[in-house]
Each structure stands twice: as C-alpha cells, then as structure tokens.
Amino acid sequence: MPRNIKKDQQNREERTAQILEAAQHVFARRGLLTKIQDIAEEAGLSHGHIYNYFASKEEILLKIIDDGQSLYEKFLLSTRDLPTNALEKLRLLLSKYMLSDRTAEIYLVILQAQATDLLPQEAIAKMGEKARSNLVILTEIIEQGQREGLIRQEDSVVLTTLFLTLMQNISLMSLRGFAPLQVADMEMALRFGKLMLTKELGIGKICS
C-alpha cells in the first residue's frame, strides 16, 4: 500500500507540536537542567522517539524560543495595525498577557536562555535582536498614543519599557507562586497601565 505523503507530513507536524508543547512546560520548570528524558516523559514518548524529530535539547529549546518570539511579533503587528486608538491596542495586549499561561512559560524560558552561557552566543544574540525588533513595534503603538494626545509626551522607549515590564510581570504571577489574576481583576490592571502612561503615577490615583 503506497504511503500517504500528506498524511505522513501531518502526523510529523502534530508530533513535533506535541514535543514542543511538552518541552515548553518542562523548560519553564527546570530550565537548562532539562534532559531529553524529561521531555519524553512529559510528552508520553520514548527517549529515542524524540531524536527522530530533534537532534538535541538545545535544538528544541531554540525552536520554542523562535516560535514564541515570532508569535509575539505577529500579535504585535496585528494589534498595531488595528483601526483603533493606542490605548485600546494596549488594553488588548495586556488582556492577552493576563489570560495566557503559555505566554508566561515562553517568557520564562527566554529569560533563562538569555542568562545562560550554555547556548551559542549567536543564538543568544539572535534572541536579543528579535526582542529589540518587537520592542520597536510596541513603541510604535506608544508613539501613536502620543500623537493622539492619549499618552504623555515623554521618552517613548522608556514608556514602552515600563508597559512591557507590567505585562511581563503580570504574566509571571502564577509561575512565581502568586494567585493568578482573574478576569475580574483585568480592569484594575488596565487602569494601572493607563495611569502609568497618561499621568504622574500615584497610589491614590491607582486605587481610586
């Protein structure tokens, strides 16, 4: 019976996605100490089966990071190009971070990878270049808000970095042992982000 090439390719793509999802969970918990066997157990596969798809755990790690940064870039670009004002775009971005466990895992994996000396320097440099490229896209949204008079007229890169820090720390709350924010908490976080970008920050204003 002839092989179904299309079906084989589909099966390979599904198994690759299964391995990457499992590896992401494990790398988020164990960092660079993760072994191929750990990934295999998480994926419900044999140790040898993993090597049919990836040559090493480093290859898996770099694939997770590249996919994560590319997905974030795609989301930033689609958000930037929406026909709405900058504050609504930032609301959408923050909401996405608050409600996605996958975002937290990818961000933590990237942080660990950037801090290690176990990966090739060119790979770490590529991560940094992609992060800076994504920061530019987010800065364009901040600058749109400045042109609209919705965001205060200060250094746009600094404001972008502050907003990004808020998003990233919100995404890590559950992984750091804090109770994750619920949908009902979203408005408070959004109000905090808006105040940070539009007014002088003050506890009384945040809580009012």
Automatic annotation (TrEMBL):
Keywords: DNA-binding, Transcription, Transcription regulation
Keyword Transmembrane: no
Record-annotated HTH tetR-type domain positions: 13-72
Single GO term (MF): DNA binding
Gene3D superfamilies associated with the record: Homeodomain-like (1.10.10.60), Tetracycline Repressor, domain 2 (1.10.357.10)
Keyword GTP-binding among record annotations: no
DNA-binding region extent: 35-54
PANTHER family: HTH-TYPE TRANSCRIPTIONAL REGULATOR YJDC, TRANSCRIPTIONAL REGULATORY PROTEIN
Protein name (record): TetR/AcrR family transcriptional regulator
